[in-house]
């Protein structure tokens, strides 16, 4: 059981640090082997997806209140419950025993006894676990679906309860992943043969060429295909932004807020590695990731630059891609921590930053050139409202129809934008528009 326990213990440490700092630092996962790393990641993201509900169960089965517990102990119980309820492959005895042993070893025998008592009660009631019953409707929904109350209020007001439930249920599912073939090192046909030969279950996307949906990245990672630069992890919706920019061989292109360089690689592939891409980011810690990735994926037309685009002047380019920093509410399945880190007031901060970045990006586009603005957000303020504010200020840009680039089911605003939703499109939530500079 040592390896399994190692994954559990590492998960508890990371979750405890998250609770204490509000930052998810997963560096410790690199100390685990592939299988344990995957299991630990499942614990971390799964528990964060179900945190409110798990805490409700703890309050139902423990004589000690959740708020009175130390974060480390609370996460032991969360992990044990998650093991029992949501990890189908874990025997009940293993879920309970491992949690009890960690509590005893890291805390005290009394903590181990309490862990054992709580988890035994959950095991006993596993077929009829209590459900939240609060008079406050928002609190009831927030606890049931493990989303913060401000987000629940926002989505119920916007979508109505039924669709808001569907969205939150989608956010709580284990996500599938898309991988994109790197056309600079292989081709779609050959990569498909690799997948079949390796016995990887996959589904080929009919939205964009070269994208395959897989349930697990383990087999692909074990084959070393990422290290060889044959493919990269990229959600299908994240591929829409470079697709509608439609960069041509020989053009000059800016990829802004570019780290870690995933979209830069797609742009280079679409350009057949001909032209110039300026991959710009102001985060000094992430800049090396761009350089590492473009080298690994066989791209040699990229100039990596650290810069704050709102403070520096740039030469004009044929095409500019601004994948803006945002609330990330479209990726809450893969980044469950964001639902707990984000606060309503941060939305205003993101909107202000996006407006500044969009203003700067617009001044980098040559006459007749193109500008793509995209986010992984579901919030109107960060998306179409942001774009309309930009157009109110700049009369030299016009929205372009996206019907020739993307499937009809992802188009919005009469074809002038795309917007995906996890519960509707079975992918991450992304937004984007194509703006043409007309004068």
Please tag this protein with its features.
18 helices, alpha/beta, N-utilizing Substance Protein B Homolog, Chain A, four-stranded antiparallel beta sheet, Alpha-Beta Plaits, 13 strands, single chain, 4 domains, 47% helix, 439 residues
Write structural notes for this entry.
This protein is α/β, with parallel strands linked by helices and 439 residues long. It has 4 domains: 2-124, N-utilizing Substance Protein B Homolog, Chain A (Orthogonal Bundle), CATH 1.10.940.10; 137-171, no CATH class; 177-233, Alpha-Beta Plaits; 236-437, Rossmann fold (3-Layer(aba) Sandwich). It is built from 18 helices and 13 strands. Strands 5, 6, 7, 8, 9, 10, 11, 12 and 13 form a 9-stranded mixed sheet that branches. Strands 2-3-1-4 form a 4-stranded antiparallel sheet, with helices on one face. The radius of gyration is 23 Å and the shape is globular. The N and C termini lie far apart (67 Å). The model has no long low-confidence stretch (mean pLDDT 95).
């Amino acid at each position: 059981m040592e390896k399994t326990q190692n994954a559990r213990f590492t998960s508890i440490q990371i979750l405890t640090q998250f609770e204490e700092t509000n930052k998810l630092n997963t560096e410790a996962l690199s100390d685990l082997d592939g299988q344990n790393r995957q299991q630990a990641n499942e614990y971390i993201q799964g528990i964060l997806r179900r945190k409110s509900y798990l805490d409700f169960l703890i309050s139902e089965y423990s004589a000690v209140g959740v708020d009175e517990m130390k974060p480390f102990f609370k996460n032991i119980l969360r992990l044990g419950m998650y093991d029992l309820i949501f990890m189908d492959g874990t025997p009940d005895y293993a879920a309970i025993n491992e949690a009890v042993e960690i509590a005893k070893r890291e805390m005290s025998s009394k903590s181990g006894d309490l862990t054992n008592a709580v988890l035994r009660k959950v095991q006993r009631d596993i077929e009829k676990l209590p459900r939240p019953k609060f008079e406050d409707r928002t609190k009831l929904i927030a606890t049931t679906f493990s989303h913060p109350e401000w987000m629940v209020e926002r989505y119920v007001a916007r979508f109505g309860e039924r669709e808001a439930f569907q969205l939150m249920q989608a956010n709580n599912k284990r996500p599938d992943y898309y991988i994109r073939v790197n056309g600079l090192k292989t081709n779609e046909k050959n990569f498909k043969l690799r997948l079949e030969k390796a016995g990887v279950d996959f589904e080929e996307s009919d939205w964009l060429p070269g994208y395959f949906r897989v349930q697990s990245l383990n087999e692909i990672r074990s084959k070393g295909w990422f290290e060889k630069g044959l493919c990269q992890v990229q959600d299908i919706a994240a591929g829409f932004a470079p697709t509608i920019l439609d960069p041509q061989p020989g053009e000059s292109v800016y990829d802004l807020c570019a780290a870690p360089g995933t979209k830069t690689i797609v742009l280079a592939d679409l350009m057949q590695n001909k032209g110039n891409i300026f991959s710009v980011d102001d985060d000094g810690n992430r800049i090396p990731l761009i350089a590492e990735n473009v080298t690994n994926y066989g791209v040699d037309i990229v100039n990596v630059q650290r810069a704050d685009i709102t403070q520096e002047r740039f030469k004009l380019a044929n095409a500019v891609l601004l994948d803006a920093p945002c609330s990330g509410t479209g990726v809450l399945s893969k980044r469950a921590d964001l639902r707990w880190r984000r606060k309503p007031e941060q939305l205003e901060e993101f909107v202000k930053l996006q407006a500044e970045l969009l203003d700067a990006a617009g001044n980098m586009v040559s006459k007749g050139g193109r500008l793509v603005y995209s986010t992984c957000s579901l919030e109107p303020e960060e998306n179409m409202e942001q774009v309309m504010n930009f157009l109110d200020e700049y009369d030299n840009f016009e929205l372009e129809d996206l019907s020739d680039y993307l499937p009809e089911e992802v188009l919005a605003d009469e074809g002038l934008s795309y917007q995906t939703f996890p519960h509707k499109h079975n992918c991450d939530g992304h937004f984007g528009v194509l703006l043409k500079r007309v004068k």
